[in-house]
Design a protein that fits this description.
Layout: H1 2-15, E1 23-25, H2 27-44, H3 46-49, H4 52-72, H5 80-83, H6 88-118, H7 128-135, H8 143-174, H9 179-193, H10 198-203, H11 205-217, E2 224-228, E3 233-234, E4 240-241, E5 246-249, H12 251-255, H13 304-321, E6 322-326, E7 337-339, E8 342-344, E9 351-355
Antiparallel strand pairs: 1-9, 2-5, 3-4, 6-9, 7-8
């Protein structure tokens, strides 16, 4: 992931204050912006990641869409097609759609023109936008549909991925004893591997474990596998679920089951124990019946491997280049903000940050 690594470093330089002394920094907002830049570098290269109008839209589209849905819920279904025209958030959603058309469509059309001119000599870019175009067919193979798809990817990827490093930051501020062991691991791996290679990612077992334990306590949603039963459904044990019932799996309750995960928060719970019989334990991206954060089976999040590595690069950079702690004398971790089935880190929490000299070069 050299391009994503480069984008994260560039975003830190562009967005983080100098912090030569302790400064209050809106880290939650900055982490979200960095994830947006990194994700868009993967989506469409620098043409997207360095376009401030697009990165802003890719962040705010999710929020405005969610707020629009909450407003529409107040009205009966038959009224929603009418009242949508008077909801301010809906106007913002339409604006994001227009931005997508202005930004994405010209990129697609320019690539088509380059392909027409160069023929067999044209080398397609290695990004997700090109992969989506190559895999599209019929009425989906249009620049307009690629613009819509780019928004959908932003909706699914950016706010979800950016919430994880914010939770990690709060957990580290509340448990500073984990900071130095994580720094030592990152420095050792980078000194020996040179950069964030596949081998390097696999060696960051303490960081991976801390991320998994933090995720276990801080879900994006309390339920997963949300489904609407359209017709009466008879289960194998004879129970009938009536049509029209919304069902889901209590993923967070499973993750907090003391029979599966005994004891309090343990950041290195999933680190493989050394020895001749050492076996790799569950990883951050592992999906199984006791870890449903990414979904399960064929519906498991296909982007979780990219997201995990993106987050590791971000957190590693932050750990090596900055000291940090809660502002205002806070020592305990702030409570998350819960609404309906969603949960998020409180973005208003004050974080004090001070730049430090990294002991190893990040290639």
């Amino acid at each position: 992931m050299p391009d994503v690594q480069d984008e994260i470093y560039h975003a830190f330089d562009a967005l983080m204050p100098s912090c030569q002394d302790w400064n209050l920094v809106p880290v939650a907002d900055i982490f979200t912006a960095i994830i947006s830049c990194a994700s868009n570098r993967m989506l469409g290269g620098k043409a997207l990641s360095r376009n401030s109008e697009w990165t802003s839209t890719s962040i705010n589209f999710t929020d405005d869409t969610w707020l629009t849905a909450q407003r529409l819920k107040r009205f009966r279904p038959f009224l929603r097609p009418l009242v949508q025209h008077w909801i301010p958030e809906m106007a913002k959603v339409r604006h994001h759609g227009n931005v997508a058309q202005r930004v994405i469509a010209p990129i697609v059309n320019e690539r088509l023109e380059q392909q027409r001119i160069l023929g067999d000599k044209w080398r397609p870019p290695l990004d997700l936008l090109q992969m989506l175009w190559d895999g599209a067919y019929g009425q989906d193979k249009t620049a307009d549909f690629m613009a819509y798809t780019a928004l959908a990817i932003s909706f699914a990827a950016i706010r979800t991925s950016s919430s994880v490093p914010v939770h990690l930051l709060y957990d580290l501020c509340a448990r500073p004893e984990y900071i130095e062991p994580l720094r030592d691991e990152i420095e050792t791996v980078l000194a020996e591997e040179g950069s964030f290679t596949k081998v390097a990612f696999n060696r960051l077992v303490k960081l991976d474990s801390f991320m998994k334990e933090s995720q276990r306590y801080n879900p994006l949603s309390f339920l997963t596998f949300g489904r609407l039963i359209h017709h009466d459904l008879r289960l194998q044990d004879g129970i009938i679920i009536p049509g029209g019932t919304l069902i889901g799996v209590a993923a967070h309750a499973v993750a907090q089951d003391p029979q599966l995960f005994p004891g309090p928060f343990s950041g290195f719970r999933f680190v493989p124990q050394p020895g001749p019989q050492s076996v790799q334990g569950p990883q951050f991206v592992t999906t199984n019946a006791s870890n449903l954060s990414w979904g399960y089976g064929k519906h498991a999040c296909s982007g979780r491997f990219f997201a995990a590595n993106e987050i590791k690069i971000l957190i590693a950079y932050f750990l090596l280049h900055f000291d940090f702690k809660f502002g205002g004398g806070r020592t305990e971790r702030p409570k998350n903000l819960d609404f309906e089935l969603q949960s998020m880190a409180d973005p208003t929490v004050e974080i004090l940050v001070k730049r430090r000299e990294a002991r190893v070069r990040m290639g």
